[in-house]
Amino acid sequence: MVTPMAQRIAPASRELAKFYSARHNWRNSGEERMRFRKATALARVRPGSAVLDIGSRNGDLRRYLPPDVKYQGLDIAPEFAAPDILVHDISQGLPFADVSFDYVFMIEVLEHTPTAYATAGEIHRVLRPGGTWMVSVPNPYHLKEIIWNLLRVPDKQGHIYSWTRQTISRLGEMNGFRLVDWGGTYFYPPIPAPWLLARSVAYKFVRD
């Protein structure tokens, strides 16, 4: 599924790679579990499907997918390199052929992506018609986000964009997607929550 050229592509931005490599062991398993459960519940991944997981880390999303999916992970941090996880900077495009996947997941990645519009276009290219793009992003209306903005707390997580339902819907529409479902992921401590209280929100797009 990976093109021969992709095997030779290293992260083009050394600063991005350095930033996320230094933070590769930052994680909260409880939060990840809630995000993965919500995203896969909305996606309804069919057995045997081809799945691309952008920002895959070590590929833990696989635990929530049917066992026979054709899984391909992608991450910028070289610490996550593995037989089914390619190290690549998505700001340089996606190193896969057209219509290669049935599902593309981006769990807490789009807010870090400097080329969000171009990346959405690349996802449309590699998805098959009718394919699903699942995106999970921080909820800008969450109380913590509001307080941090009011107190001018500097970002330390590499967030570049803040996505509302309106702006992420427009991003999808301008790249050939329809928003068909969405919902909140979790509240602290990690428990299910409606979108207004949720720390992040999952969006399900379908490729036209």
Describe this structure in words.
Helix content is 25%, strand content 25%. It is of the alpha/beta class and 208 residues long. The chain has one domain (4-207): Rossmann fold. The strands form two sheets. Strands 3-2-1-4-5-9-6 form a seven-stranded mixed β-sheet, with helices on both faces. Strand 7 (186-187) and strand 8 form a beta hairpin. It is globular and about 45 Å long. The two termini are 22 Å apart.
Outline the fold blueprint:
Blueprint: H1 14-22, H2 29-43, E1 50-54, E2 70-75, E3 85-87, E4 101-107, H3 116-126, E5 127-138, H4 143-150, H5 165-173, E6 177-184, E7 186-187, E8 191-192, E9 200-207
Parallel strand pairs: 1-2, 1-4, 2-3, 4-5
Antiparallel strand pairs: 5-9, 6-9, 7-8
Q: Helices and strands: which structural class?
A: alpha/beta
Q: Considering the protein shown, what is the CATH homologous superfamily?
A: Vaccinia Virus protein VP39
Q: From N to C, what is the helix and strand string? A: HHEEEEHEHHEEEE
Number of DSSP helical runs: 5
Strand content: 25-35%
The number of distinct structural domains comes to 1
**Quick one: how many beta strands?**
9
Radius of gyration: 16 Å
CATH class: Alpha Beta
Major β-sheet annotation: 7 strands, mixed
Shape: globular
Uncertain runs are 1-12
As laid out across the biggest beta sheet, the strand order is 3-2-1-4-5-9-6
Which architecture would the CATH scheme give at its second level? 3-Layer(aba) Sandwich
CATH topology name: Rossmann fold
- What average pLDDT do the residues reach? 89
In which range does the helix fraction lie? 25-40%
Distance between the termini: 22 Å
